[in-house]
Amino acid sequence: MKRNTEQDRVYSDPREQIDKFVFDQQVARVFPDMIGRSVPGYDSVINLSGVLAAQYVQPDTLCYDLGCSLGATSLAIRNGIRVPGCRIIAVDNSPAMLEQAAKRLPAADGATPIDFVCADITRMTFQNTSMVTLNFTLQFIPLEERSALLQRIQAGLRPGGILILSEKIRFEDPEEEQLQIEMHHAFKRANGYNDLEISQKRSALENVLIPESLARHQSRLKQAGFRRADLWFQCFNFVSLVARK
Known about the structure:
Elements: H1 25-38, H2 42-56, E1 62-66, H3 72-80, E2 87-92, H4 95-104, E3 114-118, E4 129-135, H5 143-156, E5 157-168, H6 174-190, H7 195-205, H8 214-223, E6 228-235, E7 238-244
């Protein structure tokens, strides 16, 4: 998938009022640059999702990419699949993101098909699936709806299926939390963001992106019926878990 080279300058100008962050046309245009410069380890998590697809996707099953944005994870899964009869269901509730995703990932002869679906993932049910990804998506779901979503995902997985859950997390120790925030901000500065951009985007994401602790994620996954939930990636305050049925 060709990267969009347009630079993210969404929060570069001072604003008197900071509106809530939304995945609109403005964000869709610069999203690859935005997330690459904002989320440490993002490319590694996405690319390695394809490695896990090669290991865990089963023949004649569905793979769900929930909160697919521009389809980077869907592409990685498609490139990783080594078995026949599969289909990828790429879901997002932002028409702007899906429009760009469909342009970036046209159908390819012999490749696993990708269906782009505009929907609210909290209202979906899942079936006959061997792999589900929630890459930096659950953090945007209301807290009270997260458990039910994970339970439905678990119910739809075939034995041996996996969920990849990638999230920004918070830390119970206030000193560690502050350290991780400072390192994340340093990462953004190293990637060209200034303090105004960092501050304004953080304000826009307040009460929109709600992080939780690693322990809370693992506990919720266990309560949802997953047999294991193992940490396989961490960079600063961003992690990824593999939950197995």
